[in-house]
Target: C3H1-type domain-containing protein
Amino acid sequence: MAAPSPTNEPLPTQTLTEPNDSLPDQPSDAALTDDTPLGEKRKREDDQKDQEPNPTNPSATPLWKTSLCSFFRRQSGSCSHGSTCRYAHGEEELRQRPDNTWDPTSERAKKGIPFKSSKKKKGMTVGFVSFESVEQLKTALEQLEGKSIGNKSIKVADVIPRSFEKNIKPTTAFPQNGQETGKPVISGDDGDVSVTLNGAQNVDGNEDNSTVNGSVTSVRSVRDAVTPLAHMAYSDQLEQKKMSNMQILKRLTRNARKACPNGVSLPEWILKSREIGGLPCILEGILPSPVINGYRNKCEFSVGYSLQGKITVGFMLGNFREGVTAVEEPINCPNVSTIACKYASIFQEFLQHSDLPVWNRFKNTGFWRQLTVREGRRPETTIDSENPEANIAEVLLMVQVSTMSFDEALVASEFEKLTQAFSAGAAASVPSLPLTALVVQDHQGISNVAPADAPLRQLPLGKEPDVPEMEADKNLVDPRIHDYISNLKFCISPTAFFQVNSLAAEKLYSLAGDWAGLGPDTLLFDICCGTGTIGLTLAHRVGMVVGVEMNASAISDAHRNAEINGIKNCRFVCAKAEDVMGSLLEEYMNATQLQDECQISEGAVEVNCTTEEKDGCQISEGVVEVSCTTEEKVECPISEGVVEVSSITEEKDILVNNAEDPERSSCLSAADSIQEPGESSNQELQNVNIASEGPREPDSQLQSNCQSENVNPLVQRFKNVVAIVDPPRGGLHPTVIKVIRTNPLLRRLVYISCNPESLVANAIELCTPSAEKTEKGNRNNRGWRNMSAAGLARNRAKSMPHSEPFRPVKSMAVDLFPHTVHCEMVMLLER
Ligand SMILES: C[S@@+](CC[C@H](N)C(=O)[O-])C[C@H]1O[C@@H](n2cnc3c(N)ncnc32)[C@H](O)[C@@H]1O
Model:
């Protein structure tokens, strides 16, 4: 099969839109496109029920038969609703709308504004309209300008034309692609939407000068799209990020003030915020990245067509939602390494001759979708910021494809050619490029963001001399690369999260550790732990780490990382934090309460173990005698007395010897836990504690945790329970926030965020004082759809169970992403 000509891509021209609410039941292809998810029909039926007219007087419903029925048209004149369908079965039945317009997909509407074809994806506020000629386009512009649908106005905007579309009459250069013809696009859920004519809108919306007749005077470069701050000195970039983070942080104060319930006094931190310009706490500054150029250890390159119409591997100039589909080579993007650029270029060259098509974002068809280049560095004590690439020792390539409906033999042969192309390209490069593993990810979804469980297949790069052919073909080798943070080695599998700027991440983690107030008697929860980086780099500073992560490969990496670095005081749980955090905290806190049950008499404490503990921990006597001094009593908040055990040395030794046996690991903890805090060195602790769990299905994981480690006595030795959370861009799940907020023993929380907006939203819930009487959440309230993240958080804060709020203590930005607007934010919350 030949690669399709770029002209097969529908020509993005101009978007024409209106909000959904003006035409709530729009059944045209705009609303029911090929990508209409399952369940849409049902939705439509529901809509229909809502609007069911009186059959004797259909015109009582103003929208009755004002839109064409797409089912009727698609199914060649049949529709299950028959004559009761509220949509028009054909042009004859079609009625004019109350605003005197016609269904824009109808012939009558088209008579008004001629056009060639249109395209819109469900849920998008923009659509694309193509025209037969410049004249047609001009007419449309004139007629559309200033038009409104309902009470919302139509906006017309350009999309960036690809150069092969420039100065060529669309009628001759771009034959109709045979789909979605003759339909203007109607959509939008938030009011104004744009009509895109032969060009693409700029992300910023103000730099583009592309014109409607297809000649572009200026479009944004890939450098500007990917690294918009690259034109500034690095010190100015830092200043800009600091200022913008300050503005975002101020929202926390404003929103928490707003959300503070009537009759409850404003917390001290809000009152004091006036002294620091409205900030919720001091922003200590911004930590610069140790490396400014070529720092990204992971780049995801899209496959598509350039402005010149050439198959290209690189970055999109904007996003699809904005009508931008052009992909440009990653040249001059200072955050990308030359190694990554070279691999993009090798792949691009390969695609020019491939027999399989590149992915078409409009039609959701094609084969080649994306190339991910992941780099692993050598350990290094001194940072060569001038030449960070000198340290790159390993490269993992992951090519995303959509194999559906392609011939297996053809696919296999293309994969073979791909392997050869990468291997030859890497070897031919001067100096040669590292190439550790090549993986193919099969993904059918609309966007390139594949689910964590999308099938992966490793392509053998060459046969190991001592590996039999069969084995090599079975891809037995684990496709992983390695990187180093804080002198620890990290194993990274293809889909596991790993900070893209490892050297700056090192700074981030150590700052988080410094703020978390760690010590040998600290139990650290590393929530959203990925490959275990935070917990493992801080493990030597705490008694124990419990990491929670939903990505099974990342958890498996975390286990391996603990092992290769000889760290034994970590337990990793593979589950969604919202599913297990409640139980995990309960598990540890329950154990704490057991200690509270200790009876202190004359400085001696008797710890009564439950039968379960006895069985689990093999403390045969069932009673352990401990003694404590008055002074120690004051120091130990858990048992009101620091426990000292004199008679279990032997027991401990036995347990240490069994450290390899996971069944015994909690017993190790038990024995160790009866040590006086600070008595055993942390190293010693590392030698005795092994409590890690392999990746399992998130749901079964929790059960198994609960069953196998009903009460983990290890917690008894911890005075200090701290959480470091590092959630994805969306922030923490509301359940996790609630669990953290309502657990009174969790006094300190370090929040690391790659999106300060979601940090603020989560902090509103964590820091707003409780009302005397908690409001019940209204599940039926659909107003949330239009709420900001902060508004939603304020709303949720009202139904937060009565609990002591946290207060923001300090914050610091850490720049992991030079040349871009992004930056990490760390905030310490205490109560
Ligand atoms: C920003 S990354 C941080 C990873 C890690 N702390 C690090 O620095 O490498 C967020 C991590 O949260 C995980 N994640 C996302 N949603 C989650 C959830 N609901 N429960 C647990 N982990 C989640 C992701 O898989 C990802 O590994």
Observations:
- The CA atoms of residues 262 and 388 lie 55 Å apart.
